[in-house]
Amino acid sequence: MAALDLALFHVPIQRKERTFRSKEELTLDYTDTELRARYRFGREGILFLSDLVRDKLTRQTNRNHALSVEQQIMVTLRFLASGSFLQVIGDTLGLDKSTVSRVVDSVLDALCEKRNQFIQWPTNLNQTKAEFYEFAGFPNILGAIDGTHIRIKRPHHDEPSFINRKGYPSLNVQAVCDAKGRFTNINANWPGCCHDSHVFRTSQVCAHMERNGNWENGILLGDSGYPCRSFLMTPFLNPNEQHHRRYNRCHAVTRSIIERTFGRWKRRFHILHSEIRMDPKKVTKIVMVCGILHNICIQLNEPDVAAEELVNEDVENGNNYNGQQDGRGIRSTLLKLILTVIKFKTSLSLSLFLCIVIQETEGPGSFTIS
Asked: With bands split at pLDDT 50, 70 and 90, how would you rate the model's confidence at 217?
């Protein structure tokens, strides 16, 4: 009797019929201009990225509907370039939301493994210093450093740690770039409540500069949110003297490359400018991949995205560093020499400038030239 009742009330499972959407959008049959408008890379760039991670993304299947490596790259680039919801990306490209999510995860993982290949500390130090010197006569610079906030959704755990001084949740991303706007270091591991000086003090960049922090090996330029160290020059706060203002002007002109780089970066990958609606760990991965892609764009001479809006909201730090600073003696020596060049309008070569600074800094209270 019980079996008969079960048979009477048994409802067969209605399986949804599988449908395969058209993927006509995922094609390279566009002009380079049309491809860049959608994916931020032309045909050559998309094929370069595909070959870079082909061994990681090739599907081990004989099914006809598996996405090719090129299509996976294009899906991820569309997501990073637009900052749209995964559902919107899927509807636009003819894919299911879950497929888009899996593809983006796979491509991010594959590209992250290449970070040491494309984000590297300068190796040709003399060339890097010479390129920075051309901006405003500021000598011996290896890079410009700054932080920028990447907005995220409110995390479920430890939410207060991610609220920055402007009142919204974010990651505080520290970056160093060279004179060409290439990232030489990116640190995206700290929540928005952390001060720039703390992020720097605990970073690999600071540890490296402390080990190799002498004039011969080069220094960094940072804003007033960082301490003035022997290897990190900052501007004068509230300059009242004309020579201090001139130093600050040269400092600002040279350091502005990092601000412009943040602007180019966020215009190219709009996901960095909008709110990233993902877990902070995945946001860290997205930031790193966008940095890798930015450097690849420069390597392949991809054109910048038109400046439709001001995307870098962190130009003024507004939260100055108030701790110990041990680089003021070096900064004073630099000030004298920069003013000498400006006063007499001398076209001083970088090599001669460095020799003078080395001689001037070999005294009590200065660091040792190794």
From this structure: confident
**207 CA to centre of own chain:** 20
> What does the alpha-carbon distance between residue 292 and residue 183 come to, in Å, rounded to a whole number?
8
Specify the DSSP class assigned to residue 229: B
Q: How far apart are CA 321 and CA 319, in angstroms?
A: 7
Question: How far apart are the two ends of the chain, measured CA to CA in Å?
Answer: 95
Q: What is the per-residue pLDDT for 162?
A: 96
| Ramachandran quadrant class, 318 (left: phi over 0; alpha: psi -120 to 50; beta: rest) | left
Average pLDDT over the chain, rounded to whole? 83
DSSP, collapsed to helix, strand or coil, labels residue 61 as coil
- What pLDDT was estimated at residue 252? 95
CA distance 334 to 247: 9
CB 116 within 8 A of CB 109: no
pLDDT, residue 328, reads 61
70 contacts 28 by C-beta, under 8 angstroms: yes
What is the rounded (10 degree) CA torsion for 101, 106, 112, 117? -140
On whether the CB atoms of residues 169 and 155 are closer than 8 A, the answer is: yes
CA Rg, the chain, in Å?
Answer: 25
In this prediction, residues 41-64 reach a mean pLDDT of 89
Q: State phi, psi for 73 to the nearest 5 degrees.
A: -60, -45
The confidence score (pLDDT) of residue 334 equals 62
The pLDDT of 305-321, averaged and rounded, is 56
> CA–CA distance from 229 to each of 242, 248, 339 (Å)?
23, 16, 21
CB neighbour list of residue 17: distance below 8 Å, 6 or more residues apart: none
Q: How far apart are CA 104 and CA 110, in angstroms?
A: 10
**Percent of the chain residues topping a pLDDT of 90:** 63
Phi, psi of 114 (to 5 degrees): -100, 10
Paired tokens of 197: 């000086």
SS (H, E, C) 75-95: HHHHHHHHCCCHHHHHHHHCC
For helices 280-299 and 69-82, the axis angle rounded to 10 degrees is: 110
